[in-house]
Amino acid sequence: MDACLAAGDEVVALARSAGDGTSAGEATWMVADLLDADAALDVVREAAPERVFHLAAQAFVPASWEDPGATLRENVTTTLNVLEAVRHEAPEARVVVVGSGEIYGPPARLPVSEDAPLRPQNPYAVSKAAADLLAGLYVDAHALHVVRVRAFNHAGPGNAPNYALTSFARQLAQAQLGGERPSRIVSGNPESRRDYTDVRDVVRAYRLLAQAAPPGAYNVCSGRSVSIADAIALLGEVTGDEIEHVVDQRLVRPHDVMDVRGDPARLQDATGWRPQVALGDTLRDMVAWWRERLAQ
Known about the structure:
alpha/beta; two-stranded parallel ribbon; 12 strands; 296 residues; 10 helices
C-alpha cells in the first residue's frame, strides 16, 4: 500500500473489521470479510478498481498444520470471492493474486521455473496451490487479466516476528538492548535453504507485474538460496555482533523442503525487474527496525 501511495495512486485498502487497518497515508479504508461473497461484491462494486492486489491470506505454515481447514477456507474461499467479485463488477481490472513458492514442494531441479509441477508439502502450500489454479481458471474461462505471483521467501522492516529472518532480527535486537553477549539466536533446522528477497523489491515486482505483465504465473525471487545457519552468521557480520546460534528441535518443520530456489527469468523478461537490496542490508535494516520498537 505504501508503495502505491508513494507512486501517487488512489488506494482503496480493505480490512476485515474496523480497527484492523491504519489511518496512515491517504488510503481509503473499507471494511469487509472476504469470506463473505456478497461483501466482496459490494466492496469491488464501490471501489471500481483498475488494479487489484489480492494478498489476504493465512500465511503462517505452522498455523496451517494446527488448523488445516481454517487455512484452506481463508486462502481458497477469499480468492474465489475476490475473483468472482472482479468478474461481475470490474472485469477490466488487472488482478495480482499473490501466492507462494511453497507450492512447488521438493524440486526436481533447481532453480524452479513456473513450468515445474506443483507438489505442496504442507496445508498452507496446498491452499496456495489451489488458489493459484483457481486464478488460472478465471483467465481461461472468463478472460480476466490475472497475474499469479509465486512469491518465494521475503523479509524486511515491518514483517511479523513469526517468520524466520524476522524472528532472528528481533532476537538479536532484544539481545543488543539487554546487553547480552554473545547474542543468542534460536532457530529450527539450520541446514534448510531458502530464496530470500527484500520485501521492498517484492512490492516493486508486484507493481510492475500489474502494470506490464500478461496473464500467467510468475516467480518473484532472487534466484539464490541461503541456509538458516548462513543467514544467522551474516546477521552477525553486518551488525558486528558475536552470535550464539542454538537449534531448537521443536521448531523443525515436518516435511521440510531442504532447498528452495526459484528462477526469476520470466518476471525479468516481462518487467525488467531485478532485486536491488542485498540480504545483508535487509538484515541490518530489520535489526534497526526492531531496536527502535523494542526500545519504546
